Amino acid sequence: MLGTVSNSDEEGFTFISCERLPAGMFVCYNDAGKNILCRVGDAEPLNHYPQEFLMDTELDADEVSGFYGLDPEDFKYYSYTASVVGFFDNTMGEFVNPRTNPACGVKIERAGDEVLKDISKIKKGAAGSAFLGNVLGADTGVVLSVRDIVSQHVSVIASTGAGKSYTVGVLVEELMKPYNMAPVLIFDPHGEYSSLGEIQNMPDFITPSYRPKVRIVKPESIKIRISDLSVSDFISIMDDGTMSDKMKTLFRSAYHSLKNNGKKKFTRNELKQEIEALQDSTNEPTIEGIKWRFGKMYGSIFDDFQTIPLADYFKVGQLTIMDVSGIEETSQQLIASVMLRRLFDAREGTENNRYNETHVDKFLPYPVFVVIEEAHRFAPHSGEAKSKSILKTILSEGRKFGVGVCLVSQRPSKLDADSLSQCMTQITMRIINPTDQQQIAQSIESASRELISELPSLAKGQGIISGVAINTPTLVRIRKRLTSDVRGRSKDAPALWAAQRKYEEKHEMRGVRADEEMDVGV
Questions:
Q1: Does residue 272 sit in the same domain as residue 363?
Q2: Which residues are within 8 A (CB) of 148 and not within 5 positions of it... i.e. 6 or more apart?
Q3: What letter would DSSP give residue 102?
Q4: End residue of a domain, out of 298, 322, 339
Q5: What's residue 364's pLDDT?
Q6: CA 117, CA 499: separation in Å to the nearest integer?
Q7: What is the pLDDT of residue 449?
Q8: Sign of the torsion angle spanned by Cα atoms 368, 129, 466, 214
Q9: 428 — phi, psi (to 5°)?
Q10: Which of 161, 224, 211 is nearest to 181 (CA)?
């Protein structure tokens, strides 16, 4: 027993306890044989010491109260607010609120495993499960439904250093387990997920009939086939702010002329020839201006034949990490745009029987999952990005065709609100910025206000999981990763400086030493 109900109203109820309980903790009470799950809110002392007892810092308040004949234990009780979650209905598969609060005098208990297990929709280790951690303050595991994550998307939001990438690593580990064998792609702008390659040789992931594969695609290997670009892609690359409307109109004419002639796949020179074919005495300077800007299409990431091979990147039981670190941000957006557009077309065409086994580059007969790191770059709240439109399309329509997305960001206020609201499962970790907290509160319907208020006080590795993949919003302690987490950690600058100094002392560095050979006097 933890305490006793003292009052209730339409907002919830209060109970008295002598134990210190953290906000967000689960408790329960019994009502007609049913265990009713509740969530602890704010707390305040039931009785306050007289101010005079506290004015002398040299004296202990308990000793002063004892001196005056008061029982110090009377000041150790707390009044807690709490809200009712409900009882778990096995038929409906969810918590049902009884619509009544407990009466005064009802005993409040600590929620045990037999109650907390119903927080998860699926059992740990079952097909389609993802074990992410334990209920904060308890040993009960929190297991998400992979089916709901993939079909209705997920967001991972946290401030820098709160464990965002670490948590994504845990989620990806679960997706690659033998009971899931998911085809996963991580779009990695910082090159921080390469350690996940360890899963290929770890016993936890291997069975007699299954061994996961990891494919790491380096920046120099990423190519965009010229014919995979839309006309708006071309113009966004070519236009430096000085491209006139006449130039854009003529370029569109050349592009569509090539497409209308049945050229689904064309080269840069073929498109250039179409542009030149439009030249006459009235538009010669304009065509020359287009050709000069078209020179940008001969950059390193563009190719006439090579492309993003969907069939190789998305295989059952394979994790593909697209390392786009070192590529400028606008090019990252373009790569993401082309990859997502081709992926959506492949899944939609396969589902609608437009593509079959003969369409090697477009046939994708199973759902896939894509992790977008630094999501606010690719779907910004304000302004445009080359990838924003297709990403919003996939988030709103992708569930019909089996394209699941995980948006990862440390600044939700900079992330497109519509995109964030389409993620029906949310993993939210420490967020300190009030603007970011407000954005989360507006975009995430299932997270209660009490839990949102807990975001600044969450420790590293703690988070709030809410949404369709879990039965009720829950404070969770993320489990330990099986793979190493190197790139996500902060650099220990003093240790690195000391190591470098020792290296220099051991190996006399070549070059001019300022204090010996240069005049540095003032």
A1: no
A2: 121, 424, 425, 467, 468, 469
A3: P
A4: 298
A5: 95
A6: 49
A7: 63
A8: negative
A9: -115, 125
A10: 211
Residue 491 has what pLDDT? 64
Q: Which amino acid is at 53?
A: F
The reply to whether 236 and 338 lie within a common domain is no
Residue ending a domain, among 298, 323, 356, is 298
The first and second tokens of residue 116, run together, are 């907390």
Tell me what pLDDT residue 424 has: 93
**DSSP, res 194:** G
Residues of the chain with pLDDT under 50: 512, 514-522
Q: At what angle do helices 388-401 and 329-351 cross, to 10 degrees?
A: 30
Contact criterion met (CB below 8 Å) for 14 and 80: yes
* 72 and 148 together in one domain: no
Residue 397 resides in a domain: yes
CATH number at residue 423: 3.40.50.300
Q: Which domain holds residue 83?
A: 3-111
Cα–Cα distance, 17 to 79 (Å, whole number): 7
User: Is 504 inside a domain boundary?
Assistant: no
The pTM assigned to this predicted structure is 0.88
- The dihedrals phi and psi of 439, each to the nearest 5 degrees, come to -60, -40
Retrieve residue 411's tokens. 């600044």
How far is the C-alpha of 122 from the C-alpha of 142, rounded, in Å?
A: 9
pLDDT of residue 490: 60
Q: Do residue 322 and residue 289 come from a single domain?
A: no
In-domain check, residue 117: no
How many domains does one find in the chain? 3
- 96 and 138 within one domain: no
Instruction: Check residue 260 and give its pLDDT.
Output: 83
Closest CA to 311 of 255, 368, 269, 248: 368
Q: Are residues 330 and 377 in the same domain?
A: yes
Q: What is the pLDDT of residue 486?
A: 56
| Same domain membership, residue 441 and residue 341 | yes
Q: Helix 231-238 crosses helix 245-260 at what angle (to 10 degrees)?
A: 140
- Written as six digits, the tokens of 173 are 């580990």
Q: Are residues 462 and 324 both part of a single domain?
A: yes
* CB environment 343-382: b (16+ within 10 A), e (fewer): bbbbbbbbeeeebeeeeebbbbeebbbbbbbbbbbbbbbe
Structure tokens at 466: 């809410």
Give CA–CA dist 55/31, Å, rounded: 46
**Token pair for residue 127?**
């097909």
Percentage of the chain modeled with pLDDT above 90: 69
Residue 483, sorted as left (phi over 0), alpha (psi -120 to 50) or beta, turns out to be beta
Q: Is residue 133 part of a domain?
A: yes
